[in-house]
Fold:
Amino acid sequence: MRILHYTLGVPPNRRGGLVKYSLDLAKQQKLEKDEVYLLIPGYSNIFINSTYIKDTKEYKGIKCYLIINPSLIPLYEGIKNPKDIINPGKSINQKNVLSFLIKIKPVIIHIHTLMGLPIEFVNIANKLNIRIIFTTHDYFGLCPKVNLMDNYGKKCFDNSGINCPLCCTKSPSYFRMMYIYNSNFSILFKKYFKKQFSKIRYKSINRSSHVNNEILEIDKSKIELFKSLKLYYQSFFSQISYFHFNSSVSKNEYTTFLKNVVGTVVPITHAGIFDNRKIKNTQKPIKIGFIGSTGQSNGFPILFKILDKIYNEGIVEWELIVFNEKDEKYISGNINYVGVYKEDQTDIIFNAIDVLVVPRNETFSFIVLEAISYGVPVIVSDSVGAKMIINNYNSEFIYKSQDELQNLLKRIIKNPEHLNLFNQKIIENDFSYLLKDHSQAIKKYIYCH
Structure:
């Protein structure tokens, strides 16, 4: 089978769960003798006024192609001006794209993100009757900031675009800077560009904070533009042949926001998942783990608030181990910041904790799967896609409210046996999260549906 994967990029320029999954799946398919190609957004060429595809060096033995002058790649920053995507100022070289697709003759185009991908590419692929698959790694296309969270940190239910201007008020307005920051060239000076970009964004945010009334007026004038952006991406999604939902959570969100969506839920995995399950004997004080940034989007402030309250109630037989740099806003005697972890430290991490807490809002969460692969119980928010995995072991470890999380933490702190029973259930159940099995499921339930 000839498969073309469109993904955000390759290491070291791009990392993260989306990139890891797409590249691991592509490599696994190549091992299974499929003919696999990669297409990624490349750099911006200011001297050529069109978007086109060109060859580049292989990645891990897989032929790779670049989109030169791709669409904007906002990542998690949001979109300041929808015109930057709807009318980017550079037309696509349709003859070049058509020639590219005829040359490699993909049976499947597997899209892992809409960032950087011009809608005209999908139009041309559809005219050639190529089957287009889309994996729901995040909510970009439904939400400019990818997470379906509004400006107040609450779940967003707006499908019209009315709330988008407010959420994107502090998004970078430096259009060219975004291109440079996200270009392959920037990898040569990655730390410098990241530092300079952060300075510019910081100044922009500070300046915005002093003119709130003016900003609100500007945002109101942009509502129609964001409505157009919503329609643009709805047109994009309407051309997808089949949706690969990575969880029931993402399926629910996409089918709520879009009409006539057809697809199947197949939980994802990656090449680094192995059966490392161990029997654990948790005793007091229990070690609670948190992995990730301490920002609001990751739910850390809520977890800190709950544990601080528990501590003040005299329940102190616990330690929160945070795998990130110290955040001075969240300091307590029972919190231990141990620094950002590296991918090769998973053994150390999951041997150091008794339970992992994932209070996020995301379509899946590889961290949940990694913890389970080591036999570590996990507490997850109801808005975490990987809750479907936790549900196989103990549905009581899925919480819907802060009160539920607080009561659960109290219960396991007072009686660690709850964690031992969870661990026992993990050990007893079949381990079915290997990439080779997932690859076969994708072909059976997604590609060949």
Q: What stands out?
A: The longest strand covers residues 50-59.
